[in-house]
Amino acid sequence: MTTKYHVCWGPNAVAFVEVPDGSAFQTGQPNDEVFDVRDDAARRAFELNYKGFRHFKLEGEYEAGEYVVFIFNLYRALAEVEPYTPDFDEPPFPSRDFKDWKLVTVPDPADELTAV
Question: Residue 116: what pLDDT?
């Protein structure tokens, strides 16, 4: 089953919608951009100032795949993220090795090479 990701937008409105294969979808917005890759759609929605993404908080819990805004970037949780417990040996967010988060705002060149 293939999911399509729609970023629908018009004056003063942006929507980010996941539509499973075989489902009917229609928007009232004048623009409907369709994506095969969820991160690409999320990035475009973020560029258009979509307000549905949560803002990162240290005390927050996040599900795998959930998007968050931190400073001026969009990130995706790679696994479930527990509330922050102070550990002075590593920065709170994002971790240096990106084990918990993937930067979505800037496309990963490796993803572009495999998308051919």
Answer: 40
Q: Give residues with Cβ within 8 angstroms of 80, minimum separation 6.
A: 61, 62, 63, 64
Closest alpha carbon to 77 in 20, 19, 36, 38: 38
C-alpha atoms less than 13 angstroms from C-alpha of 58 in its C-beta half-sphere: 8
Burial 100-115 (b: 16+ CB within 10 A, else e): bbeebbeeeeeeeeee
How many residues does the structure list for the chain?
Answer: 116
> Distance between alpha carbon 18 and the CA centroid of its chain, in Å?
12
Q: What is the pTM of this model?
A: 0.80
Q: Is the pLDDT of residue 68 over 70?
A: yes
Task: Pull the structure tokens for residue 61.
Answer: 């819990």
Partners of residue 15 on adjacent β-strands: 8
C-beta of residue 19 within 8 angstroms of C-beta of residue 25: yes
